[in-house]
């Protein structure tokens, strides 16, 4: 007997919000003969990011007894800091901090072209990636978890550089990117921006020439890919290669002539290249 079936689609798009009423009471007992007691407090601030929002209201710092001196400043990372001083304190100092924090997490798709692992970070951001006593990045369990979380990471291919030497100015160069298909180029993915030979500087040796893929917005998963150097007119260039045992996989030097149907030839040397913005492992 046929039974009618009905289906419905649900799209969940929301967030999570919370209100935290916070109070901290700190009591400091000065030692006998203390000349100056100095306490510093970082001021919590409101901020907004693509995934998280925090709004601070009702912030209050209460000091008992009142300090002899108060200095509001910013530290070397831009945080607001309150520094209070008591001269020759004879009684305990009590600090009461109270505030209300409205927090919300946004659940939405983020579009990014940032490379992974991150590169080219400004100096002020690099400090937050360093190991600390609370974040021991050298710990084996932390490294294992990092590999687990990034094993399937995807990132945008930025550039592929070739070590080239040109002999004339007549022509154009570009790179084509292909998926790997059982040790040979497979599905076509993207083409780099075209490079005009006349815009390349002429030098006696070889120089790195970067082919830009950032405009193609190609997102790659860890794996193997192929690049093919294309040209127009009578372009004449040398692509630097290294003699001896290839560093890459055994079938990584395969090639075919314009008359071949398969990639049945292998070279005894390996062309030099570099990749920017691609997760290799």
Describe this structure in words.
This protein has 2 domains: 15-106, Immunoglobulin-like; 155-276, no CATH class. The chain contains 2 helices and 21 strands. It has helices spanning 123-126, 140-150; strands at 15-28, 36-42, 47-48, 52-64, 69-74, 80-87, 93-106, 155-156, 159-166, 172-180, 185-191, 195-196, 207-212, 219-220, 225-231, 237-239, 241-243, 254-255, 265-266, 269-271, 273-276. The strands form 7 sheets. Strands 1-7-4-3 form a 4-stranded antiparallel sheet, with no helix packed on it. Strands 9, 13, 16 and 21 form a 4-stranded antiparallel sheet that branches. The two termini are 54 Å apart. The model has no long low-confidence stretch (mean pLDDT 81).
Overall mean confidence score, pLDDT: 81
Q: Which of globular, elongated, flat, extended, rod-shaped describes the shape?
A: elongated
Task: Describe the main β-sheet briefly.
Answer: 4 strands, antiparallel
**Total strand segments:** 21
What is the tally of helical segments?
2
Short description:
This protein is mainly beta. It is 5% helix and 44% strand.
List key phrases describing it:
mainly beta; 5% helix; 21 strands; Immunoglobulin-like; four-stranded antiparallel sheet; 281 residues; 2 helices; 2 domains; elongated
């Amino acid at each position: 007997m046929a039974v009618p079936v009905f289906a419905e689609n649900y799209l969940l798009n929301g967030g999570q919000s919370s209100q935290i009423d916070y109070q901290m009471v700190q009591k400091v007992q000065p030692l006998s003969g203390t000349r100056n007691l100095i306490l510093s407090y970082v001021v919590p601030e409101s901020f907004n990011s693509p995934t998280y929002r925090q709004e601070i209201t009702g912030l209050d710092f209460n000091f008992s007894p009142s300090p002899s001196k108060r200095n509001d400043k910013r530290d070397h990372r831009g945080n607001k800091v309150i520094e209070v001083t008591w001269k020759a304190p004879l009684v305990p100092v009590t600090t009461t901090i109270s505030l209300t924090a409205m927090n919300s997490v946004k659940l939405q798709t983020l579009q990014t072209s940032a490379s992974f692992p991150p590169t080219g970070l400004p100096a002020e951001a690099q400090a937050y990636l360093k190991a600390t006593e609370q974040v021991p990045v050298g710990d084996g369990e932390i490294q294992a978890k990092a590999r687990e979380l990034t094993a399937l990471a995807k990132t945008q291919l930025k550039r592929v550089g070739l070590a080239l030497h040109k002999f004339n100015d007549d022509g154009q160069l570009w790179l084509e990117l292909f998926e790997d298909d059982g040790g040979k180029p497979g599905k076509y993915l993207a083409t780099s921006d075209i490079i005009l030979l006349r815009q390349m500087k002429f030098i006696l040796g070889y120089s790195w020439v970067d082919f830009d893929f950032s405009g193609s917005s190609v997102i790659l998963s860890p794996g193997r890919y192929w690049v093919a150097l294309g040209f127009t007119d009578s372009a004449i260039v040398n692509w630097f290669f290294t003699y001896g045992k290839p560093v890459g996989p055994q079938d990584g030097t395969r090639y075919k002539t314009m008359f071949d149907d398969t990639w049945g030839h292998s070279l005894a040397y390996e062309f030099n290249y570099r990749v920017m913005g691609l997760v290799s492992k």
